[in-house]
Amino acid sequence: IHPGFGFLSENSQFVEMCEAVGITFIGPNSEIIDLMGNKANAREQMQKSGVPVIPGSEGFIETVEEAKEVANKVGYPVLLKAAAGGGGKGIRKVNDDNELTSLFEEAKREAQVSFGDKRMYLEKIMTNVKHIEVQIFRDKQGNVVYFPERDCSVQRNKQKMIEESPCLLITEEQRKELGNIAIKAANAINYVNTGTIEFLMDSQHNFYFMEMNTRIQVEHTVTEMVTGIDLVKAQVKVASGESLPFNQNDIQINGSAIECRINAEDPSKNFMPQVGKVRYLYFPVGNLGMRIDSDLYAGWEITPFYDSMIAKVISLGQDRHEAIEKVKRLLSEMLITGVKTNQSFYLDILKDKNFLDGKVTTEYLEQNFLPKWKEEHKDAAI
């Protein structure tokens, strides 16, 4: 069973059920999913393995008094996080002791409702950072490789919007350093199959472990484009007991790739989710270095019950400039009617000087780009 990148892909109970009846789950085993799915446990494991982590708590935080002690030690502002969290849920930004008192129980309740687990941990908020992640692949024989990093710094509400590879600001030496850190993390837990280790990179290019996703990710397409390697095909081979069909020397950067996530949402109305029937659909196809992943079709009814992402638009260029121009062309030619999407919003980001310079941080979209964009488009929100 291949679980994709949602629903059951990180559900250890489902994996245990597969294991119990002899069904091969294409991914890591249930123990690894449990270990790395709990963010506090994963953080503790990485510390033991010598992987640098964001300053914060060691293990779980049980009480608000304990949370205050850690917060004052590492310094405000901090992030209060659900240990079993994901998707931006169960997270609160806290600026002082008073806010921590008022938000602690609220965050625990949200975590319990969302994940069935109210345990929390705490990390210092790191500013002026990029979100950099490394895809790793390890087989049952212990062979392990890393792939070129992905820069996922363009985010809204801690949800990725644009992913690209490689990162414009990372040197080959830093790439190897980061890859070796990721390999150390994978070996430390005897990881099998593919996974992604997410880091924050500060302005001095220091890397700090954030979390590990024990599945194929939405943005694996960027890595496939820039390396020419079919990651899902390799997943099947490794799950069946075969050795990795490639080694580290086979993994080369062949240009630059970029992806935009198309969501059914209205940016002019604070990204309000959109529902309704897709009336007409046109995806430009057949162009070299261009790819659209979607199961959308005319007549499809978009409901509020699932994630709002309805397509991924990916391009590959000889360099970053060409990749950006190609993805702009795809976005300009693609047509979805009946439901409002964020398609045109990306065209505005892709021509912004800060984005073109590659210097954006995780705060760029909400603190720099969006205020200006909302002012320019305020009439559309009426």
From TrEMBL:
<feature type="domain" description="Biotin carboxylation">
    <location>
        <begin position="1"/>
        <end position="370"/>
    </location>
</feature>
<comment type="function">
    <text>This protein is a component of the acetyl coenzyme A carboxylase complex; first, biotin carboxylase catalyzes the carboxylation of the carrier protein and then the transcarboxylase transfers the carboxyl group to form malonyl-CoA.</text>
</comment>
<dbReference type="GO" id="GO:0004075">
    <property type="term" value="F:biotin carboxylase activity"/>
</dbReference>
<dbReference type="Pfam" id="PF00289">
    <property type="entry name" value="Biotin_carb_N"/>
</dbReference>
<dbReference type="InterPro" id="IPR005479">
    <property type="entry name" value="CPAse_ATP-bd"/>
</dbReference>
<dbReference type="InterPro" id="IPR005482">
    <property type="entry name" value="Biotin_COase_C"/>
</dbReference>
<dbReference type="InterPro" id="IPR005481">
    <property type="entry name" value="BC-like_N"/>
</dbReference>
<dbReference type="Pfam" id="PF02786">
    <property type="entry name" value="CPSase_L_D2"/>
</dbReference>
<dbReference type="InterPro" id="IPR011054">
    <property type="entry name" value="Rudment_hybrid_motif"/>
</dbReference>
<dbReference type="InterPro" id="IPR051602">
    <property type="entry name" value="ACC_Biotin_Carboxylase"/>
</dbReference>
<keyword id="KW-0436">Ligase</keyword>
<keyword id="KW-0547">Nucleotide-binding</keyword>
<dbReference type="InterPro" id="IPR011761">
    <property type="entry name" value="ATP-grasp"/>
</dbReference>
<dbReference type="GO" id="GO:0005524">
    <property type="term" value="F:ATP binding"/>
</dbReference>
<dbReference type="GO" id="GO:0046872">
    <property type="term" value="F:metal ion binding"/>
</dbReference>
<dbReference type="Pfam" id="PF02785">
    <property type="entry name" value="Biotin_carb_C"/>
</dbReference>
<dbReference type="InterPro" id="IPR011764">
    <property type="entry name" value="Biotin_carboxylation_dom"/>
</dbReference>
<feature type="domain" description="ATP-grasp">
    <location>
        <begin position="43"/>
        <end position="240"/>
    </location>
</feature>
<protein>
    <recommendedName>
        <fullName>biotin carboxylase</fullName>
        <ecNumber>6.3.4.14</ecNumber>
    </recommendedName>
</protein>
<keyword id="KW-0067">ATP-binding</keyword>
